[in-house]
Amino acid sequence: MNSADDRRRAGYRNGGTEVKVSCPRLSLNDSLEGEVQAFLTDEDQLHTYDDLTKVNPVTPTTVLKCLQARYSAKVFYTHAGCTLVALNPFQPIPGLYSLDVMKEYHYAPQPQEFKPHIFIVAEEAYRNVQGQLEPVNQSLVVSGESGAGKTWTSRCLMKYYATVAVTSSVVRSQDTVERIEKRVLDSNPIMEAFGNACTLRNNNSSRFGKYIQLQLNRCQLLVGASVQTYLLEKTRVACQPANERNFHIFYQMMKGATEEQRKEWKMLQDQHFVWLPRSEKTVEEDCFNETVEAMVHLGIDTERQNQIFRILAGILQLGNVSFSSSTDESQPCNLDEQSKGFLQRAAELLQVPAEELQTCLKVRTLKAGKQNVLKPCSQAECSVRRDCLAKVIYAQLFEWLVTFINNSICADRSMWCNFIGVLDVYGFECFQINNLEQLCINYANEKLQQHFVAHYLRAQQEEYVSEGLKWSFVKYQDNQSCLDLIEGSPISVFSLLNEESRLNRASDAKMLRVRLEKELCDNANISWDKFSKVPHFTVAHYAGKVNYQIEGMVEKNKDPVPPELISLLQKSDNRLLQQIFTEKEVESQTSKGLSKVTVVSKFKNSLESLMKILHSTTPHYTRCIKPNPDCKPLTFRKEEVIMQLEACGIVETIHISAAGFPIRIPFKSFIQRYGLIAKYSGSGSHSVDLEADSDGVLQLEVKNVLRAALHCLSSEKHSSLVHCGRTKVFLTQAMLDLLEDQRKKILSRCAFSIQCCWLRYQRRRRHARRQSATLIQAVVRSWLVRKQVQRWNTAAAVIQNTWRKWRALLKSLAEAELDDAKDFVEEEVPVLSPVVRERGSVQLSTIQEPVTVRGWPMGLALASAPSISVSLTATGFQKMMSVMASVSLPSRRGKYKVETNQYTQGLASIRAQPKGSVKLHCQRSPLLYADRKPDMNRVVTGFNEILLEKTL
Ligand SMILES: Nc1ncnc2c1ncn2[C@@H]1O[C@H](COP(=O)(O)OP(=O)(O)OP(=O)(O)O)[C@@H](O)[C@H]1O
Hints:
Elements: H1 3-16, H2 18-22, H3 25-40, H4 60-72, E1 77-80, E2 83-87, H5 99-107, H6 118-131, E3 138-143, H7 150-167, H8 174-195, E4 196-197, E5 205-206, E6 209-216, E7 222-230, H9 235-238, H10 248-256, H11 259-265, H12 288-298, H13 302-319, E8 323-324, E9 334-335, H14 337-350, H15 354-362, E10 363-368, E11 371-376, H16 379-409, E12 418-424, H17 436-466, H18 480-487, H19 493-502, H20 509-520, E13 526-527, E14 536-541, E15 544-549, H21 553-558, H22 563-570, H23 575-590, H24 599-615, E16 618-625, H25 638-647, H26 650-659, E17 663-666, H27 667-681, H28 695-709, H29 715-721, E18 722-724, E19 728-731, H30 733-818, H31 821-826, H32 834-838, H33 859-864, H34 876-887, H35 941-951
Parallel strand pairs: 2-16, 3-12, 3-16
Antiparallel strand pairs: 1-2, 4-5, 6-7, 6-12, 8-9, 10-11, 13-14, 14-15, 17-19, 18-19
Helix pairs in contact: 1-3, 4-25, 6-7, 7-8, 8-12, 8-16, 13-14, 13-16, 16-23, 17-18, 17-24, 19-20, 22-23, 27-28, 27-30
Bound molecules: adenosine-5'-triphosphate.
């Protein structure tokens, strides 16, 4: 027995008598609590709980303990009702994501029965698409804070689909399939190289959000993909937070380029670039070759690559250009010699005129009526213009890459019918100094949290009420008021920011703070530190309070790009730069006259379209948890984890999922899928009008199905597994499994019946065909034989004719013989041998060529016998010959010879004298001669018999 059992036993004992009597009240309560806890939760077995809903009771503490126990046992995935919790191991786990494991989950009849894994989520979504249960399209939402493992998880999901959604392909050629899945996977290293960076919290932090749509055709095969990106952190190009790095691609170029490439890109070995801090730090992602290889696979040729890398090298050179103020304010800023060199090289790499580049950076063009006025910029303004140039180039290049990737991997709309979307967005951010980027990121997280809450908590509870379910409500954190504060209408942080950004004046942080305070003081989610000197506001997000600095927010929201910079880039000899910025001008021209699009309004719009997609799909949530802030392998910090669990509402989710019915299916869909259970168990009406608008009829049918499915369970058990609402059926996972199981059994029974019918039908058809073939063969044979018989008849007629002539000839010979009868008496009569006497015959022969006359055996007897039948009595010449043969008389002058007949020949061979008429019966086929083969060489007995019958 294990120690837990011992503890449980001890618990019972202690809870019985002894402790109650002897302990003071407080310690008694404590120990009781401990005992109950020990009784409810077997701590030694905590790591075996696959689902956090099974821990008892469901509290943050027990959930945390369970997760910790599992993490120590190197189990990193745990279900939390409808959500999957993924703990980051911070080290590769051998065999956890191997091909075999993928196959195991993919081919499992019930993957849910396997250990929790990200592949269960992937497979469930895949099967939902196959099942065609509305909504068919699926979204896999991967959330968590920076470094929690979202990108890793998204990559696993993509690899899973790129493996299982193509292996069963028989329709498409292997070559095409490989190209598609490879291209889809190859989009990852490119986007990570250009969009990820090493931050303090994660060495490979995604600095943009992405929604990847994996497109599946009718056979659930991966035929393409498309990527939608959100809010690239472009400020990082020109300004990297302390101890953080720029985007990976710059370091990859620095470390991975060949000598020749370095020369071409003007990146010498010992060159220092201001915009490449911490270049001494090497991270796993610094692999230039992998990025180039992926580019090649996606169709970015060497020339295009060179254009891209020249642009990036140009940006780095720009970063080293520094300005110094001129003594005369009316004059533009100065550049030292070194900066001039950097500027020259930047211009060469960007392939723009160096003079013009310098002027653009130092002088502003103002419109005064129809005239352009040139105004020298201050040192700070020059730096802002330089940074702006770098940011706009990088952002546009990133956008071009995403479009290129999409063109390369996106399938034609007619080729796919469903999709599985993978959403990987930046996690909740809270730094020392937070600005517009953090406000947008946290706003996106609030939106996702709201979707989660709406989907699993609020919707569930509201639906229970509307469907008439008795349900004890769980309190949940609604973040609608926080969202109202950020994006609401008419007054919100965003609307005030936009207003300020559209005013044609320099922004004032203090004034904006006052406005915010005045307009939004009613919202409980915003607050201010009255004693702080820096203008700011604090927002109480669902995941915690974040302090936002107002300074610079309006400028970032405006994101102005001086038009002279754009026209300079349009003149570039680098064809890629030219292309990117010509397109940009077209865009800006089309939006001319519309109100100026700010960063937050653009972000809000793209987020709204994302939310629309999410609302129209079946979501699957995966919460990634970062077990420690230092990214140390297998280190679990309770405080870190509990904060994340509470922030993402996992405990509430678990509570609701454990007690509720997480699966809801409308009556119509339910009957369409499970109606066969009632039909084949014989308890339901066999045809239900699914188009009938009456829910009452459908409800009745649903109840029939449930009765048939649960016939062996008690009614209490029914209500714990399933509830029939007014328009939907509410199920637990266990009930769904049970229904699916029964459905599968019925379907396999039906399949078996269909197979039997088909085999029977095939057998019958084969038989009928064989009969037809026999009939045809018989008809053909019969026809051939008839033709043959006709020929034989003709031949027989010829023979008869000849025979008659021959007989006439013999008769005339016999008559001539009779004329010599006198000589015959004088000759000596020889003694007749017994054989001759017995079967005498007559043979006429001449000396040279004797004529043979065939006579009946026993010719003498016949010759003297009284006539029995006309045909068998020898008369005339025949009679005489028979006598001659019988007595073996020599012929006159040896001209002929009379011998016994050779009875084997011809028709003369009759061994017995027939009495009366003789009839030969032959059995005939219904078809004349059908059983005969038209073979000339064979003896045709049937024909002989028939001839014989005719003769007789
Ligand atoms: N399942 C895993 N197995 C092994 N290592 C992992 C796993 N998940 C994450 N990691 C490690 O954790 C690191 C951070 O993960 P990842 O980049 O996916 O985080 P993230 O949530 O996407 O962060 P950000 O929001 O900053 O992009 C990875 O580089 C990887 O080394």
